[in-house]
Design goal:
Blueprint lengths: L13 E3 L1 H17 L3 H18 L6 E3 L2 E5 L6 E8 L2 E9 L5 H8 L10
Parallel strand pairs: 1-5
Antiparallel strand pairs: 2-3, 3-4, 4-5
């Protein structure tokens, strides 16, 4: 059987809500306070996850309606929660697995208001 050639899909931009940006900053500060340099490592792993979302957003499974999750390398309890929109992916949360998963689901459902994405 032959293989079909597929045209690679152009990467979509990834944006973060104000709340997600604040959660990332808070987590980086938390890790930096625990051990010098860990805040920067956390930010690097977030950047790597954002790159993965940009390259293949549909490669991550849906966990609730249109909400998807990507786990951070090295910080396995932490992940980014995002949805895919026509003009790109929007990260709505950066949460530890120790927090209740319904928090990201409530944001996606509109129970917890989300501000428009920041460029």
């Amino acid at each position: 059987m032959g293989t079909q050639s597929r045209t690679p899909r152009a990467a979509l931009k990834v944006s973060l809500t104000k709340v997600a940006r604040q959660e990332i900053a808070n987590a980086a500060e938390f890790f930096e306070n625990r051990k010098e340099g860990f805040g920067e490592k956390f930010n690097q792993r977030v950047d790597e996850a954002l790159d993965k979302i940009e390259l293949n957003p549909e490669g991550f499974r849906k966990i609730y309606k249109n909400l998807r999750h990507v786990q951070l390398e090295q910080f396995k309890e932490w992940g980014l929660f995002f949805r895919i929109e026509k003009d790109g992916s929007v990260v709505i949360a950066c949460l530890s697995g120790k927090r209740h998963p319904s928090l990201a689901q409530e944001r996606e459902a509109g129970v917890i208001p989300i501000r428009p994405p920041q460029p």
